Amino acid sequence: MTQEALLQQIKIKQSYLCVGLDIDLEKIPDVVKATDDPIFNFAKSIIDATHAYAVAYKPNLAFFESYGLEGWQAFDKIMRYLNEFYPNHFTIADAKRGDIGNTAARYAKAFFEHYQVDAVTVAPYMGKDAVEPFLTFRDKHAILLALTSNPGAYDFQFSESNGQKLFEKVLETSLTWEGSENLMYVVGATKATALTSIRKIIPNAFLLVPGVGAQGGSLEEVSEAGMNHRCGLLVNSSRGIIYASKGEDFAATAQKEAQKLQEVMAKYLLKRGIV
Questions:
Q1: Do 75 and 82 contact (CB within 8 A), yes or no?
Q2: What residues are paired with 4 via a beta bridge?
Q3: What positions carry a catalytic annotation?
């Protein structure tokens, strides 16, 4: 999917919501857990319930990998379902890959050609060798970890050299890489105060912002500081939507939570004149 096509969906739905599929069998409702294919059936129910309010879905690969072959088969089935029934939704494999060029190229081939995802999250620690292979695929994207919400972010990301923080150096350097027009960036919602300085470096890029809801990030703060002239945001919510209820009404409750976020997003899109 091109960024222009994604923007069109944002305008149509008046939403920049990404629903994170962090599927933990210990947390899903018993009514789904008892089925033959609980991971897929839970994801399908969430997708069917929220698709009208979301423009993107982000399966978190760690949750699928933790279940071995069953998890990988479920991920494959979810991607096939999304691509067949919801082809206008942007799909993100939250895999956080980052390895030397030949290995990175194989990761890119796996996700973009086999699973047909639109984007993959990538760690920048090994530099352009680990990222550029993801940028060679037409209408596909690498989402670079730029500034994260976890406590350990302060171990490295805020380190300074010559008055420049490391995450700012990552952002600036990434713009010199071949295919950088296909880059997006992860910025944690709890780091909303840094969005102003981030936007000075990458004013036109899309930002994937996790951490809204259960992790304490503010949708309002992120929207105010991070939105650019064409929106440029995908705000992710996982637990606050998919685990909003453990009862038989889990899908209907997820729908309500997604709608609440969409309604706030619509106000900001209108305020900025994007819709």
A1: no
A2: none
A3: 96
| pLDDT of residue 4 exceeding 80 | yes
The answer, yes or no, to whether residue 214 has pLDDT greater than 90, is no
| pLDDT band for position 226 (cuts 50, 70, 90) | very high
Quick: pLDDT tens for 52-79. Answer: 999 999 999 999 999 999 999 999 999 9
Sole residue written with tokens 């805020």: 158
pTM, full prediction: 0.96
Q: How far is CA 118 from the centre of its chain?
A: 11
Structure-block tokens of residue 178: 């071949």
Whether the pLDDT of residue 168 is over 60: the answer is yes
Could you tell me if 187 and 147 are in contact, meaning their C-beta atoms sit under 8 angstroms apart?
A: yes
Structural domain spans, the chain: 3-271
Top CATH class of 3-271 equals: alpha beta
Q: What average pLDDT score do residues 209-225 get?
A: 82
> Residues 6 or more apart from 29 whose CB is under 8 A from it?
42, 245, 246, 247, 248, 250
Q: Give the pLDDT of residue 216.
A: 63
